[in-house]
Amino acid sequence: MTTKADESGDRTMRHFTVHHDGVTIPVSRGGRGRPLVLCPGLNSTQADLRELTELLRRDHDVVTFDLRGHGLASAADRYSFEAFLGDLTAVLAEPARLGLPSPPVLVGYSLGADLAVHYATEHPGTVAELVLIDGANPVPEPFITEADLPEFRAMWEDLATRHEALRGTACQVLLTAQEILDLNVEIDVVRSGILDRYRKIDRPISMIMSTSMAGDSGDRRTTRYNQNWRAGVERLVREQPHVSTSWLDADHRLVFTHAPEIAQIIRRPQGPAGQATS
């Protein structure tokens, strides 16, 4: 681990790197208050989440980082759910050595939410609570079917092309379109068994979900995706009524478009078990 510090107003920012599994993970820590670790999702970086991070740092001691192949993290020879989970595990080993006063709130966005759930089940007692932003959803049906593959492949080929313009910046994503597609197929499989993970967690869990995960175009396919998304949350709350849920009128980019609302939800005390708010 290497560390450096700089002063930002009345707060000290610390930057360090975690080396594991052949990759280098950049980590930043700053703010004051309750410890909080923010895990980005697939195709998002800690730089992308800057607005939410700065809002949370007003009353949290926030740790952020980049997953392999994202942002300022190094590229890797493999990208898989387990590899990304290893990145989160390696980062969470470091704040303990930095002397965080108590287990952190673990906040995950999209894929980061799924990673948070898996981490919490494999490391009981190491987090205070989970906040899951538009991820870790036990959807009844997989999102990517054989019929959907051509559309998703084209979408991620376009995304990979747009990523080229970000090469060398803190917002870069080094994964190819095929790697992104393969990971999304894998995430569907992970979510098919995630209810079993929830049963093992004894920490408070809050979900912040988008009402129109796939957008609001109203076509048949988009409607099916959005219905599947809501059905997954309803399925979870029926089985685990202690999970608190909040819905935002947004699509899957809610962490970028609704950062103030998300920060406000994270700050407030958890509502009654199973409470759903809009």
Question: Would you summarize the structure shown here?
Answer:
The chain has 278 residues and is of the alpha/beta class. The chain contains nine helices and ten strands.
Describe this structure in words.
The chain is of the alpha/beta class and about 280 residues long. It has a single domain, classed as Alpha/Beta hydrolase fold, catalytic domain (Rossmann fold, 3-Layer(aba) Sandwich), CATH 3.40.50. Helix content is about 40%, strand content about 20%. It is built from nine helices and ten strands. Helix 1 links the parallel strand 4 and strand 5. Helix 1 runs parallel beside helix 9, helix 2 crosses helix 3 and helix 4 packs across helix 5. The longest helix is centred in the C-terminal third of the chain and has 20 residues. It is globular.
Determine the CATH topology: Rossmann fold
Order of helices and strands: EEEEHEHEHEHHHEHEHHE
Q: How many extended strands? A: 10
Shape: globular
CATH superfamily, please? Alpha/Beta hydrolase fold, catalytic domain
- The gyration radius over C-alpha positions equals 18 Å
How is this fold's topology laid out?
Blueprint: E1 2-8, E2 11-20, E3 23-31, E4 34-39, H1 50-56, E5 60-65, H2 81-98, E6 105-109, H3 111-122, E7 129-133, H4 149-163, H5 177-192, H6 194-198, E8 205-210, H7 220-239, E9 244-248, H8 254-257, H9 259-267, E10 276-277
Helix pairs in contact: 1-9, 2-3, 4-5
